[in-house]
Amino acid sequence: xxxxxxxxxxxxxxxxxxxxxxxxxxxxxxxxxxxxxxxxxxxxxxxxxxxxxxxxxxxxxxxxxxxxxxxxxxxxxxxxxxxxxxxxxxxxxxxxxxxxxxxxxxxxxxxxxxxxxxxxxxxxxxxxxxxxxxxxxxxxxxxxxxxxxxxxxxxxxxxxxxxxxxxxxxxxxxxxxxxxxxxxxxxxxxxxxxxxxxxxxxxxxxxxxxxxxxxxxxxxxxxxxxxxxxxxxxxxxxxxxxxxxxxxxxxxxxxxxxxxxxxxxxxxxxxxxxxxxxxxxxxxxxxxxxxxxxxxxxxxxxxxxxxxxxxxxxxxxxxxxxxxxxxxxxxxxxxxxxxxxxxxxxxxxxxxxxxxxxxxxxxxxxxxxxxxxxxxxxxxxxxxxxxxxxxxxxxxxxxxxxxxxxxxxxxxxxxxxxxxxxxxxxxxxxxxxxxxxxx
Length: 439
Known about the structure:
By secondary structure, this protein is α/β, with parallel strands linked by helices.
């Protein structure tokens, strides 16, 4: 009898040990199990300027995320060039094996949001008490919306600015324009500097390069499309003002097409550029390699009679795959890249653009990082950049954006080159674009 009792006790003890081992093993596996989340990235930057540290920010952000989310590993495919990234990501989305979280180039956002590839972030944003939309520059944040729905968050942004050849202006007795300068100021300077320097009968010095209808429309307060992006409006006083101004600028060159080479050689006063160009070519040594034969700086775009000195903010976005099964982890990873102050500050260390967070861009640390390799007489004007970004307008997202922009480019160029009746030509162009939008 005693032996039977002892045997039962031993069995109970042994069974208890086995259960304890299983429980401990289960707990250990649960707490130490490796979960994987995937990320879509590209090499370099979206702005086509020199960048020697394209993966450093990526690695730092992943390291921080993995430290804060034990047992989670972030994986990504390296070596995808920015020029090949759109095709790679589109193919992955079609196959159904796209990353959980991925970067989105500005030209791709309209397509991805309209085909249902991106998760609606509205609920995640609303339920996250720590997330504050007001931390972002408005134009950067709004670019991630399509028809009022937030499908993506901004990661990095650049405004367009006016590059000024200070040496050329000085040689012609002209001061660098103030920040609130106008189209009249712009045209007056372009007219003064456009001339035949060597006396061979051909113009060889010019006013502007790369100033297009986009800049003219933007700075004359032209709302080209309705809110839903389904209707184009070209039949307005403001559009006619802009096209007429572009005609005046074009006429100064007497049929000559100003080139990038003309500007690089120091023979052009103005050129529209992105902040990324300013950041890439202002510091040493790229300042010496690119523009060593003249002194230069960047200022605001000139304003039209109906507009302001505003810029368009181009933005690289990040979004969550609508098919992901790791919604919460994806949201945390997305926030690490776009919302975390430490990671956003690294944009000024390793990227060519600016942080999408106001407090980061306006910080003393950002100012020091921007000018770390810049000589004393060439300091980047951080205050001006911040003001430009604060007042910038978001790129407009509308259906068939690439097709419509191409039609606008061709249509307005034809109006300028063939000196057609502007009112009639704009009405015809408007009709063609609206037919395309609603086809």
